[in-house]
User: What shape does this take?
Amino acid sequence: MPVKSFRGEIADAAVDTIVLHTNTGSTGYKITKLQLFPHKFGTEDQKSTVTIFTVPQTTPSNQVNFSDNTLLAAAVLSTDNSENNPLNSNVVFDNMTFNQDIYVCHENVHSDAKPVNYYIELEQIKLALDENTVATLKDIRNITGQ
Assistant: This one.
């Protein structure tokens, strides 16, 4: 299957929208890779949480709830400009298929509020009519449940 990649730098307390919807909804996606990279490695401390949701978010947070069925992925990045703990990163993503836009959120709890770079790979999947309907209805239910 084809792979689409997206990358960018996201500011602290910001939300980026990745536009994926189509008129027919017959193209689905699954996250296959999520990576974070510091804004300025080796000279700044950073404590970033990046989350990806299927519904729009108004306020990014460093709190991650894996029971939230709109959460597609979460990643944390911790850098320390000392040699004791230079870089730590953890990434978790769901195997869920979606066919609408996704929302990348960033929260840096370190006092300097620096941005972070992200890289996302999505596997593109041709959806059958029943899969298309299920994915779209799930998105509608999640939006109205917010």
Notes: The chain is about 10% helix and 45% strand. The mean pLDDT is 88. The two ends are 32 Å apart (CA to CA).
